[in-house]
Automatic annotation (TrEMBL):
UniProt KW keywords: ATP-binding, Nucleotide-binding
Gene3D superfamilies attached to this UniProt entry: P-loop containing nucleotide triphosphate hydrolases (3.40.50.300), Valyl-tRNA synthetase, C-terminal domain (1.10.287.380)
ABC transporter domain ranges (all copies): 7-216, 283-516
Cross-referenced SMART domains: AAA
GO molecular function: ATP binding; ATP hydrolysis activity; DNA binding
Family recorded in the similarity comment: Belongs to the ABC transporter superfamily. ABCF family. Uup subfamily.
Substrates-to-products reaction catalysed: ATP + H2O = ADP + phosphate + H(+)
Any Pfam family the entry gives: ABC_tran_CTD
PANTHER family: ABC TRANSPORTER ATP-BINDING SUBUNIT, ABC TRANSPORTER DOMAIN-CONTAINING PROTEIN
Protein name in the entry: ATP-binding cassette subfamily F protein uup
């Protein structure tokens, strides 16, 4: 007998601002589902997720969750006002016997449970919300941009966690590598309709293009039929008025059908214009040293950036990527060493903090009052790459409508703020782009377009990002910052950096004896020719998974070593014992899988 879905939405209709967001929407989520929820910025992904969570009431339709099924939602802006620390908030939904789970996820997410709420940043609050959801372990998790504010290491940890969990989840993310590695189905929101693909995200773009091609073909056929019927109506209706009124009514119905079709939103008309050609040497850094107190950012760092290079900076949050970027661009002085900038540089900066946006201003005022975009004597035009253009027309190029032009910038979503910032930096010619976390909140289509634009850009790009796929597609050089002042330059993108690092860290051939157990495997595994791409990725990930399981087992053994725990807290003892059995089984399976893959790779 088939089990009931974990969640079922039926005939959902929802209207915002007079416009229908959904009409007659149906969807189900089953046990074990691993679903990507995708769509353009503003298509209603987050709203649909809130409907799924029961936080937004639809105008019509029903939401059904079986009795006893828990649906967990990761809050974007959690209310922590009632809590002293982030840990207090994260543990607030847990029974006392289950609060140890917070410690288990805290290390991987780089989340500090003891951090005071009063001084916590937005990113720390979001990590607390994610830790809370993972620790609660509901039957269905709804994750809205969980990788935002996580560095690459934490993203990797979360990816491994979600890959190993038995919990069903629906996932919104701009990180294509994250979606490819984790999902087995796709929900695509397109013009108020939700389509489902029973394949992972890696098949989404091909499916989307096929769907659009079929839609265009059907529209062309309908247009030809309307044209033929209209010709008949003009030429022959007077002779056959009484007998053919049904055909006239059919023509009217065809026209109504055509008028009712919602044209899909185009891509943003983003464009970068290179300024005057810079000198061949754009930036040269020698012997850079920078510290803040006891924390060393870089020491004895050298770098030469030539015209046309695309340089990506990667590393954990707080390691100093933005600080190094500011030293290279002259915004911040090093403690020692020199930075020499080349000649004829025109720099444009995308700031991850969005500090150049005044949230109290409207989009209109934010553009026309920008000194670099202002057109003298005109309050309705902006200067775009040397030519005046009406402010609304330019905003439409970046997918903003006329109503939004008069809305405050503070009302925009994260993706819309990113597009507005791109509109500002793309309005003027440049030959050096500094992009600090440009991919956060952008939809897949806009990311694809940005990648293409950067590929055609004649200037130089300095890029800070945690998006592995974007780095692979854009970067020609990757600088890995690993802490304690260590910054290493690698050729190529993220995958190239991982491969080169693995090769440099691999032991000599004589030392490559099979480990007695998988936990002794090296942290980085050289990719082997005998494995498929998926198997190579899994082999590289398994040592980290094994290490995580061993840490959790150690904590559980420590907890259960208390001889009075059973009599004092029997529920906690039972939960911990159950968790220990589960983790030990998972460890044995992971070790066996590692040995199997390592044996296959070596054969």
């Amino acid at each position: 007998m088939a089990r009931a879905p974990l969640l079922q939405l039926s005939s959902i209709s929802l209207t915002f601002g007079g416009n229908p967001l959904y009409d007659g929407l149906d969807l189900t989520v089953q046990e074990g589902d691993r679903v990507a929820l995708v769509g353009r910025n503003g298509s209603g992904k987050s709203t649909l997720m809130k409907v799924m969570a029961g936080l937004v009431e639809p105008d019509q339709g029903s939401r059904v969750v079986p009795t006893g099924t828990r649906v967990g939602y990761m809050e974007q802006e959690p209310d922590l006002s009632a809590f002293a620390t982030l840990g207090d908030y994260a543990a607030s939904g847990l029974a006392e016997a289950e609060r140890y789970r917070i410690e288990m996820v805290a290390e991987g997410l780089k989340f500090r449970p003891d951090a005071p709420v009063a001084t916590a940043s937005g990113g720390e609050r979001r990590r607390a919300a994610l830790a809370k959801l993972l620790a609660e372990s509901p039957e269905l998790m709804l994750l809205d941009e969980p990788t935002n504010h996580l560095d690459i290491q934490a993203i990797g940890w979360l990816e491994a966690y979600l890959r190993d969990t038995r919990t069903a989840y629906v996932l919104i993310s701009h990180d294509r590598a994250f979606l490819r590695h984790l999902t087995q189905a796709v929900l695509w929101i397109d013009r108020g309709e939700v389509r489902r693909l029973e394949k992972g995200f890696e098949h989404f773009e091909e499916w989307r293009e096929t769907t659009w091609a079929e839609e265009d073909d059907a529209r062309h056929k309908l247009d030809r039929k309307i044209k033929a019927e209209a010709k008949w109506a003009v030429e022959g209706i007077s002779a056959r008025r009484k007998r053919n009124m049904g055909r006239v009514r059919a023509l009217q119905a065809l026209r109504a059908e055509r008028a009712g079709q919602i044209r899909r939103q185009g891509t943003a008309l983003m464009e970068l214009e290179s300024g005057p050609v810079s000198g061949k040497r754009v930036i040269e850094a020698k012997g850079l040293v920078k510290s803040f107190g006891a924390k060393t950012i870089v020491k004895n760092f050298d770098l030469r950036v030539l015209r046309g290079d695309r340089v990506a900076f990667v590393g954990p949050n707080g390691v100093g990527k933005t600080t190094l970027l500011k030293m290279l661009t002259g915004e911040l002085a090093p403690d020692a060493g020199t930075v020499t900038q080349g000649t004829n540089l025109d720099m444009a900066v995308f700031d991850q903090t969005r500090s150049t946006l005044d949230f109290s201003m409207t989009l209109w005022d934010g553009l026309v009052n920008d000194p670099e975009m202002r057109v003298s004597g005109r309050a309705d035009q902006v200067m775009v790459r040397g030519q005046p253009k009406h402010v609304v027309a330019y905003l439409k190029d970046f997918l903003f409508d006329e109503q939004q032009a008069r809305a405050p910038i503070g009302s925009l979503s994260g993706g819309e703020r990113a597009r507005l910032l791109l509109a500002r930096i793309m309005a003027k010619p440049s030959n050096l782009l500094v992009l600090d976390e440009p991919t956060n909140d952008l939809d897949v289509e806009t990311l694809d377009l940005l990648q293409d634009i950067l590929g055609e850009y004649d200037g130089t790009v300095l890029l800070v990002s945690h998006d592995r796929d974007f780095i692979d597609r854009v970067a020609t050089t990757t600088i890995a910052m690993e802490g304690d002042g260590k910054a290493t330059v690698y050729a190529g993108g993220w995958t190239d950096y991982q491969t080169q690092k693995a090769l440099t860290e691999a032991p000599p051939a004589a030392e490559k004896a099979a480990p007695k157990k998988a936990a002794e495997a090296p942290k980085e595994v050289v990719k082997k020719a005998g494995l498929t791409f998926t198997e190579k990725h899994r082999l590289e990930a398994l040592p980290g998974i094994i290490e995580k399981l061993e840490r959790e087992i150690g904590k559980l053994h420590e907890l259960l070593s208390d001889p009075d725990l059973f009599t004092r807290e029997p529920v906690k003892f039972a939960k911990a014992s159950e968790m220990l059995v589960e983790r030990e089984a998972a460890l044995a399976a992971a070790e066996e899988e590692w040995l199997t893959l390592e044996d296959k790779a070596s054969s």
